[in-house]
Write a structure and sequence with these properties.
7% of the residues lie in helices and 71% in strands. By secondary structure, it is mainly beta.
Length: 167
């Protein structure tokens, strides 16, 4: 029975495809105290030569982790871009769990007292686990949890919801 389910789901997505996926969510810094959550925006572009495998490019931004303590307000902004690989398992035409491993080049900037306090840049590996829900062949939604370690000394964890446009 499981084999029939997998064969029927794979048959639906038997050709290569392109996916564009904007998503929004919330991110937090897990190893540095004193900062609130930041909104999170990401846009992915993927090419899937096989239904189960894809390569990915993306741009992401965290517009501001604000200090939660009293005193001087400091905001940390992070902008990044990168590439990675995606493995998805089309268990059903309308349910596709996936994992993604990528590498992000980032620029971080801390501002406070009306000026830039410090800037930093570097690269960090990331990992994501999510679920795609194709509604029509060209359109769907997704939810994911992801994280990056050592982004300017901080570990970032995020949850996002997004749209998928598959061509």
């Amino acid at each position: 029975l499981l084999s029939l389910l997998l064969l029927s789901a794979t048959h639906v997505y038997a050709e290569s495809s392109f996916v564009v996926s904007p998503s929004v969510g919330s991110a937090s810094i897990s190893n540095i105290d004193g900062y609130n959550k930041s909104p999170y925006l990401r846009v992915d572009g993927s090419f899937h030569p096989l239904p189960q495998f894809g390569v990915n490019v993306f741009v992401a931004g965290h517009p501001g982790f604000k200090s939660s303590g009293s005193g001087n307000d400091v905001t940390i902004k992070i902008i990044g871009y990168g590439a990675g690989v995606i493995g998805r398992w089309p268990v059903h035409p309308h349910v596709q769990p996936y994992v993604r491993v990528d590498y992000m080049l980032w620029n971080a900037e801390a501002t406070g007292l009306g000026r830039t306090l410090t800037k930093d840049k570097g690269g960090s590996a990331g990992f994501a686990v999510g679920m795609q829900f194709p509604i029509r062949r060209i359109f769907g939604i997704k939810a994911e949890v992801s994280g990056y370690n050592n982004v300017s000394g901080a570990d970032i964890r995020q949850f996002s919801l997004g749209l998928m446009f598959e061509f």
